[in-house]
Every structure is written in C-alpha cells, then in structure tokens.
C-alpha cells in the first residue's frame, strides 16, 4: 500500500476565512485597512512569516514591525479554527484510503501548533500517522526535506503527495514524487502550467487516482 502525504490549507481544508479574520484583527489594532478574503487566499502557502510579510506590504506597514506582528499572529493562530471548513468529500476519501491500508500523513507550512489545533477541531487528526508543520524542521516547503521526512515516518510503500499550490508542485518536483493536484484550492497558476502527475477537483476521484499510481509503481 502507498504512503500518501497531504498538504493542509487549500487541500483538505479551506482555512482562509479564519486566517482572514485573524489578519484583520491585527490590522485593526494597527489602524490599517483590512485585507480581502481574496488577498488572504493569495498570501497563504509559504508559512506564517511570509503571510505576514505579504500582509504588511499590502498595507504599507514597515519591515521593522515584522517580528512583532508575526509573534502576535502566531499567538492568535491556534484559536483560528471556527470558520474553517473541510472540503467536500475529504472525510469519505480519507476513510476509504485508510480502509484500503494506505498510510496517511500531513506536510504543511502552517506552524505545527495551529495545524494540530485545527485538525483536532475538525476531527481529522485520527487519519494521520505523521503531522509535520512549517516549523517542525529547520526548512519548510518547497524544500523537499519536510515531505521526505513525512514519507520516512510512514514506513514503506509507493510515495504520493497531494496538494493544491505552486509551492506543493515545486516540493513534489524537488522530492521526485508523484503529485496529485487538487484544483479547487489556493493556486494562482493555471493547472496546465503546474507540474503534476494528475489533477482532480472532486475528492470522490482521489481513490481511483491513487490506485492507478500504486498499480503503476508495482
């Protein structure tokens, strides 16, 4: 059976509404104009520090405020769970993959504490044998090291990575693993322009894609 590692935000869950609320809470305290939900989606993907960097740039907040705002956001982040929703079909797909004997993991650039907080809130933790956040290792995606560490923790079997973004596509490319692209997440690039093994818009299709890759690996 396969080792299947998933990205989190934009792949399994739509967390942008929570992150949007948290960001605007910080901006309100700074006396700055709020960012839009579309802004938020476009800023997600490379970890909390890059998110705050992009948020600051959008509102003209100087670099000197970065560390303070990042610390405030990280402190708030683990409470940002109530507006987050699981994408349709995810739970059924994870249940089916687990029932087939696949080993499942998470590799995200979201810091580990808020990652676990939202997984626990949504009752998704039970599916995953390993959960790595953006601060679990010295480097984060698109460096392949976190993804490779997640696969290593899951034991043996063909490797498959499932994600939604440019960062995920590049991570899979660097790790030289098959990449299944969920097209309904936070990507900013056309599907055709992203390197991927296969793309899907409905989690009901994930099982068949996995079985095809496992058969190919065999």
Looking at this protein, list some descriptive labels.
218 residues, alpha/beta, Rossmann fold, DNA polymerase, domain 1, 2 domains, six-stranded parallel β-sheet, 9 helices, 8 strands
Protein architecture, described:
The chain has 218 residues and is α/β, with parallel strands linked by helices. The protein folds into two domains: 3-14 and 84-217, HAD superfamily/HAD-like (Rossmann fold, 3-Layer(aba) Sandwich); 16-77, DNA polymerase, domain 1. 44% of the residues lie in helices and 13% in strands. It contains nine helices and eight strands. It has a six-stranded parallel β-sheet, sandwiched between helices. Strands 2-3 form a two-stranded antiparallel ribbon. Strand 6, helix 8 (166-175) and strand 7 (179-182) form a beta-alpha-beta unit. The chain is elongated and about 55 Å long. The mean pLDDT is 97.
């Amino acid at each position: 059976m396969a080792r299947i590692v998933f990205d989190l935000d934009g792949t399994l869950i739509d967390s942008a509404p929570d992150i949007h609320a948290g960001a605007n809470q910080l901006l309100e305290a700074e006396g700055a104009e709020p960012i839009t939900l579309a802004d938020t989606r476009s800023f997600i993907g490379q970890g909390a520090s890059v998110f705050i960097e992009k948020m600051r740039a959008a509102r003209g907040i100087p670099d000197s405020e970065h560390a303070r705002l990042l610390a405030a956001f990280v402190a708030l982040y683990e409470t940002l769970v109530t507006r987050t929703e699981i994408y349709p079909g995810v739970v059924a797909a994870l249940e089916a993959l687990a029932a087939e004997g696949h080993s499942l993991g998470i590799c995200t650039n979201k810091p580990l504490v808020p990652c676990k907080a939202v997984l626990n809130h949504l009752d998704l933790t039970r599916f995953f044998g390993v959960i790595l956040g953006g601060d679990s290792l010295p480097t984060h995606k698109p460096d392949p090291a976190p993804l490779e560490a997640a696969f290593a923790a899951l034991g043996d079997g063909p490797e498959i990575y499932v994600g939604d973004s440019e960062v995920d596509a590049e991570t899979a490319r660097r790790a030289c693993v098959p990449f299944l692209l969920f097209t309904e997440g936070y990507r900013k690039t056309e599907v055709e322009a992203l390197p991927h093994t296969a793309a899907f818009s409905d989690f009901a299709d994930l099982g068949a894609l996995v079985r095809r890759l496992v058969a190919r690996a065999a």
